[in-house]
Amino acid sequence: MMDTTAVKHTVLQIAREISQGKELNDSIWEQNLFELGVTSIQYLKLIVAVEEHYDIEFNEDTFDFNDYPTLESIASFILLKASHASLN
């Protein structure tokens, strides 16, 4: 089973690298990334980096930015995918 704290730390680290200096700290988990000034290009880079790091895929056919607007929602998706993978 994947550690929630480790996942959150990694997602925040990836977001910091991609956001090019935007002030992202631990208090932003529930804040909408676009309202924080993250661009759609940076957001897509974040999603791709998360997919590559965790070897998971967001559903490209039904993907909508509004489905995962926060780092918390992205981390929850990773944990959900990991829990499904461990059941198989």
From TrEMBL:
PROSITE patterns: CARRIER
Domain Carrier: 2-82
InterPro entries membership: ACP-like_sf (IPR036736), PP-bd_ACP (IPR009081)
UniProt protein name: Carrier domain-containing protein
